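Example S7 (structure tokens).
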């Protein structure tokens, strides 16, 4: 099993009523939630560790998890509000405005950390769940507890509008990168984290910290991957883009799915990843992400669509 650890929220996507009036449609979302959904649809045993509200938005999120075969065994049910995110789409690219005060997800504490059985092979962390306290500290503590014995994947998925203290958040990300085996970032993440568009320099630094694989997605320009053995680029798959909501999260799920299928989701094997295996994993991940881009919202593909 892969355990995804982090936020589940409701995205309000822009649209219009039949009369043409502006409206927002509530849909299930959140970077880590989307990754869990994508893993479940791709046939990977997966669970989500987060706090979910007992309100009707929380019910929506639970129903979405069940429909995509994601285990609810690690969910903490809480009488606190759901996190809400209003989305603005500009030429298919999403910007977000978050409402997260005192939410069920951000209020997780170390007392809520789950005990993990040996079947949990890997943990995935990321995005806005790492910003607020006490939830950010709780997830970092979970990573620290499990980093020596399980594969760790990290997707910072930077949302600048939520980050009030850049220095503090970067310090957390640096500590977590040092514990991670796989670091997946976008080119926009690299620019925010390093103040430069130099993925190679960033990857070199993060590999030196301890990461075994650094993958940088560049949207329509493709993807770059870095290991201690070398460097690889891959062109993006051509697709008519509806929007990019959930594309990066689906890419992460596709990458983990492919590595698991090749029996490479292992710390030692990731350290000695062969170029041909990495190329296969990146290609699978890119195909999954392209399908998500081809339809509105975060709607990852099912395994049958990947044939």
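Recovered sequence:
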């Amino acid at each position: 099993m892969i355990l995804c650890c982090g936020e589940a929220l409701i995205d309000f996507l822009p649209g219009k009523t039949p009369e043409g009036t502006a409206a927002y449609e509530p849909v299930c979302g959140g970077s880590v939630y989307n990754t869990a959904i994508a893993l479940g649809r791709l046939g990977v045993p997966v669970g989500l560790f987060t706090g979910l509200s007992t309100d009707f938005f929380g019910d929506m999120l639970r129903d979405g998890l069940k429909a995509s075969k994601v285990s609810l065994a690690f969910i903490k049910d809480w009488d606190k509000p759901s996190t809400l995110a209003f989305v603005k789409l500009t030429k298919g690219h999403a910007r977000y405005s978050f409402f997260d005060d005192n939410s069920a997800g951000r209020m997780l504490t170390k007392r809520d950390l789950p005990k993990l059985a040996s079947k949990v092979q890997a943990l995935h962390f990321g995005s806005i769940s790492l910003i607020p306290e006490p939830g950010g500290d709780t997830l970092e503590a979970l990573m620290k507890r499990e980093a020596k014995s399980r594969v760790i994947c990290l997707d910072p998925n930077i949302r600048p509008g939520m980050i009030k203290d850049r220095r503090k958040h970067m310090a957390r990300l640096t500590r977590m990168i040092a514990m991670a085996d796989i670091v997946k970032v976008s080119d926009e993440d690299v620019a925010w984290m390093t103040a430069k568009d130099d993925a190679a320099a960033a990857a070199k630094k993060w590999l030196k910290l301890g990461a075994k694989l650094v993958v940088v997605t560049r949207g329509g320009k493709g993807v770059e991957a870095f290991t201690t053995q070398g460097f690889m680029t891959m062109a993006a798959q051509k697709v008519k883009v509806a929007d990019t909501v959930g594309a990066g999260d689906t890419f992460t799920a596709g990458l983990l799915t492919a590595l698991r299928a090749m029996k490479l989701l292992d710390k030692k094997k990731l350290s000695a990843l062969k170029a041909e295996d990495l190329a296969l994993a990146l290609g699978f991940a890119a195909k999954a992400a392209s399908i998500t881009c081809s339809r509105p919202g975060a709607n990852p593909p099912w395994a049958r669509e990947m044939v």
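Notes on this example. DSSP finds nine helices and 14 strands in the chain.
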